[in-house]
Amino acid sequence: MSAYDPWEIRLAWQAARQIRTCPPDHKLLAEAVGKELAAHLEICEFCRDFRKLGPVGEEMIPMGRIWQQEPISAASKAPEAGEVWSVKESLGGWGPKKVHYNSPSVLVLMAAGKPDEAVRVAQVYDDPRLMGAGDLLLGNGLFAETWNTYTLRESDLDHFILTISPELLQTILELEAEDFPSLDDHSPLKAFRRLELEVGAFFSIQAVSDLMSRHTATLRERLSERFPGEAAVIEMIRRKQPRITWPASPLPLMDALARARLPDDEVPLAASSPGRVLSLNVLHIHLEQGEMFLYSCIASISVWREQENGFLVGGRIQEKLGEEAELSARFELPDGAIVQGEGTFVDAETGYFRAFFPRLEAVGAEESELVLLVLTG
User: Fold this and answer.
1) Tell me: the pLDDT tens digits for 257-293?
2) pTM
3) How far apart are CA 119 and CA 235, in angstroms?
4) Does domain 68-213 have CATH number 2.30.30.110?
């Protein structure tokens, strides 16, 4: 239970709405009122009052205009995992619901490695009164939202704020794969989390759209380029690993790799791991040498829940992967139908993964078989 009184949490939530969704002063006090500002003023009593009073009103309104603390320092260095950075203010802007999304701070979970490439981040907030399960204090009043992670570009990050310890970063990565108790739909904390997810989506969509336009070939695409015929891939593996049993009926390459059965003495025992676990195949690709190797490992499942418009699965692959990795995931339903995973993600360094299955309910998931395949290299 929170150590704060309910009125303190409500006050913090009211401040969070202003911090995240009220336009900055130069837009709010502009002489010309555009359609976006006019629409926002219709729904925001605070901004209406502030605009009437002008700059001096800031001292007269008890709530004040509360903004996140100033970054500790600017830095020309590239962001690294375990660092908290602010997101560029210029990326903020008008969005849905007649609000102005202001740039948050984020904790870098996985660095890009290449200039201006994707970085994976967890959103950060600075009022511990709004902390709940899945939030972790970082220092200076900041906490990381392990339930709100997404992709940005390295160039989206502006000012370096602080660095956390490797041990704390590891804890956050582990929490990211956990499932947390649901909150009361009418609680300020639930409303705060909905808002934070909307903020993250606003900035992530910008980044992902740009990254997709500068798309680099995936492991699967590079595999297809290196070995144009799907049969050639299976034949190469068959020559090196003749004890593998392949599906009797012809299947697309990814399905055949996922369904291939390795010898029993090469398959780890699921019983050796507690909780919900499953066995999956991993294809390790050495494209420069033109070689590949298929092996089996265990995945522990820590996220298994129905959510809006689908079903979410997450957990950790208990095997060291290569420098990069890609996940293919699907549910095979009893009637033979396939529900393909969307937005699949696997962290090559830690093995943590997630996959979302649209329009799949909990009952359907329990009655179906989850099939995973990892490509790594």
Assistant:
1) 999 999 988 888 765 445 689 999 999 998 777 789 9
2) 0.63
3) 37
4) yes
